[in-house]
């Protein structure tokens, strides 16, 4: 078993300028998972998340959840920061939506109404 194969694929992905070629080499995620190389899987998932964003979120959460949270790996801290930043973005979006909804109701307008009553 060659544990470094997944890491080598991940590193090779960084040599590509084309996002599709880079994504192809990020098959390192599946290889690392099959090999039980959790650190290499987490590294590849972080790169995938950086490349694709939201579609890679589930894999990021899954990989990070299989590592003890008190672990001092910088990759784990980076994954937790990505998760925290995303949670904050989702919370901010929900707050904005809530304010817009409340504002519409305060002014007596609805989505289908073009006139306001004063």
Instruction: Give the amount of beta strand, in percent.
Output: under 5%
The rounded Rg comes to: 21 Å
How confident overall, as mean pLDDT? 78
Structural class: mainly alpha
- Record field, number of beta strands: 0
Largest sheet: none
> What is the 3D form?
globular
Number of domains: 1
Poorly predicted runs: 88-96, 109-118
Please trace the helix and strand order, writing H or E for each element.
Answer: HHHHHH
Number of helices: 6
Q: Fraction of residues in helices?
A: 55-70%
Multimer state: single chain
The rounded distance between the terminal residues' Cα atoms is 75 Å
Helix/strand layout:
Layout: H1 4-13, H2 19-25, H3 28-35, H4 38-52, H5 57-65, H6 74-106
Helix pairs in contact: 1-2, 1-3, 1-4, 3-4, 4-5, 4-6, 5-6
Please explain how this structure is put together.
The model is unreliable at 88-96 and 109-118 (pLDDT under 50). The chain is globular, with a radius of gyration of 21 Å. It has one domain. α1 (4-13) packs antiparallel against α2 (19-25), α1 (4-13) packs antiparallel against α3 (28-35) and α3 runs antiparallel to α4. It is mainly alpha-helical. 69% of the residues lie in helices and 0% in strands. It has six helices and no strands.
């Amino acid at each position: 078993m060659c544990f470094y194969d997944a890491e080598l694929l991940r590193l090779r992905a960084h040599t590509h300028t084309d996002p599709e070629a880079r994504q192809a080499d990020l098959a390192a995620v599946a290889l690392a998972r099959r090999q039980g190389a959790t650190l290499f899987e987490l590294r590849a998932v972080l790169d995938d998340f950086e490349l694709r964003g939201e579609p890679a979120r589930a894999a990021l959460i899954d990989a990070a959840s299989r590592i003890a949270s008190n672990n001092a790996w910088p990759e784990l801290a980076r994954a937790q920061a990505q998760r925290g930043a995303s949670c904050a973005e989702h919370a901010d979006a929900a707050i904005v939506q809530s304010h817009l909804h409340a504002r519409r109701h305060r002014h007596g307008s609805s989505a289908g109404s073009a006139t306001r009553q004063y």
